[in-house]
Design brief:
Layout: E1 12-15, H1 23-29, E2 34-38, H2 41-44, H3 47-58, E3 62-66, H4 75-85, E4 92-97, H5 99-114, E5 123-124, E6 134-138, E7 150-155, E8 160-165, E9 173-176, H6 186-205, H7 211-233, H8 238-256, H9 262-274, H10 278-293, H11 298-308, H12 317-335, H13 351-360, H14 363-366, H15 373-384
Parallel strand pairs: 1-9, 2-3, 2-4, 4-6, 5-8, 6-9
Antiparallel strand pairs: 7-8
Length: about 400
């Protein structure tokens, strides 16, 4: 069946080993005279940041480094950074790191061009002006933020994750360099990889999926299922790292042109309340939501299962789809994803609050199967009852 659809790819992409060395030239091409590099302290102490500053120095582009990014960026931190740099004549932003750095760069850019508080900008297509040109350089294979129009920020008042969704914050350029991911610890490789897998699966199965996103989603699922265990096992396997970064990139393009679903709707309230790493939260809920969603579209869920490694021979479509649940659980166990209880700080008394937040989340509307708030409460409780493994330590 063919249907009408709309597809955006506002970001220019340079993918390959060593592409980060081009940042000085690309910064000048974007009119950058003074850049704000937004990253975290860990990366600031590695040779990765030095590669970027050397390239900028060679091209005569001035810069300031802001390295106070933490996981699950908060509104007050973004606003504090804006106040610190708003009079520095910044005309280019560089987001270096995982999704937290890139999302923070988008949020700070929003404040540069709009002022005020971030909570005034949460929502879809509410911005009036483009942010300063943004270059994103991912160092994890998970978020896809280098090619998306979204910035997810924790609101410190509501304890909920909120999103700015607008093409006006999409990066102008993504420099996607697999060599930057070689030193990523096992635990982060696992969690971010499962985040990318969730993006691909939800983009493919959600209600607003379309032909181009379907093709991208399936390709990403196949790449990640094959190469994620290899990347976790041996972080210096450049082929595995390259294919994981490609899978993450492709999944990002897919979901930015469709939507996500109930996995994200559950993961983001959890992260807002407990500061749980986003990839870990997605990993925990993915098999259970996948199982819940199968009746809504067995064919698509069976295709996901096949890309994960299921053999459909001699099985019904439904049987193949349910094999996907086992494969997702097995993958999570193999790479050391913790169970819900393993997180250690989760209080079941908070489940009604989390279920309410999940039900109100924008992603609920696009989920493959309709859910009630009670459905979410049952999913939180069911997931909590499962014990599986201990998280791989770095």
């Amino acid at each position: 069946m063919l249907w009408d659809f709309h597809f955006n790819l506002p970001t220019s992409i340079e993918f390959g080993n060593g592409t980060v060395k081009n940042i000085g030239k690309r910064a000048k091409e974007l009119g950058g005279n003074k850049a704000l590099i937004i990253t975290d302290k860990g990366l600031a102490q590695t040779g990765i940041l030095e590669k970027i500053t050397q390239s900028l120095d060679q091209e005569g582009v001035n810069y300031i480094v802001y390295d106070k990014i933490a996981p699950n960026p908060k509104d007050v931190d973004c606003e504090s950074a804006y106040q610190q740099f708003k009079n520095e004549n910044i005309d280019l932003l560089i987001g270096l790191g995982g999704g937290s750095s890139m999302d923070t760069a988008k949020a700070i850019g929003t404040l540069f061009t709009h002022g005020g508080e971030l909570r005034e900008r949460y929502g879809v297509n509410l911005l009036e002006r483009e942010i300063p040109p943004l270059i994103c350089i991912p160092t994890t294979s998970g978020t896809g933020s280098e090619v998306t129009r979204g910035s997810v920020i924790t609101d410190t008042v509501t304890k909920q994750k909120e999103a700015i969704l607008d093409l006006k914050i999409a990066p102008k350029l993504a420099l996607v360099d697999p060599e930057l991911t070689l030193t990523l610890p096992k635990s982060i490789t696992a969690a971010t990889g499962m985040d990318a897998l969730t993006h691909a699966i939800e983009a493919y199965t959600c209600k607003v999926a379309q032909p181009l996103s379907d093709a991208l989603g399936l390709y990403a699922i196949e790449l990640i299922a094959k190469y994620l265990p290899l990347a976790v096992e041996n972080g210096h396997d450049l082929e595995a790292r390259k294919n994981m970064l490609l899978g993450s990139l492709v999944a990002g393009i897919a979901f930015d042109n469709t939507d996500l679903g109930a996995v994200h709707a559950m993961a983001e309230p959890l992260g807002g309340l407990y500061d749980t790493p986003h990839g870990v939260a997605n990993s925990i809920f993915l098999p259970h939501v996948f199982e819940f969603n199968i009746p809504s579209n067995p064919e698509k869920h069976a295709m996901v299962a096949i890309k994960l490694g299921a053999n459909p021979e001699g099985k019904t479509v439904e049987e193949t789809a349910y094999e996907g649940v086992a494969l997702l659980k097995g993958l999570a166990n193999k790479i050391g994803i913790p169970s819900f209880q393993d997180l250690g700080n989760v209080n079941p008394e908070d489940f009604p609050f989390l279920a309410e937040g999940a039900y109100k989340h924008l992603c609920t509307q696009a989920n493959s199967r309709d859910l009630t708030e009670e459905d979410y409460l049952n999913l939180f409780q069911k997931t909590y009852e499962v014990k599986n493994t201990t998280f791989i330590k770095n």
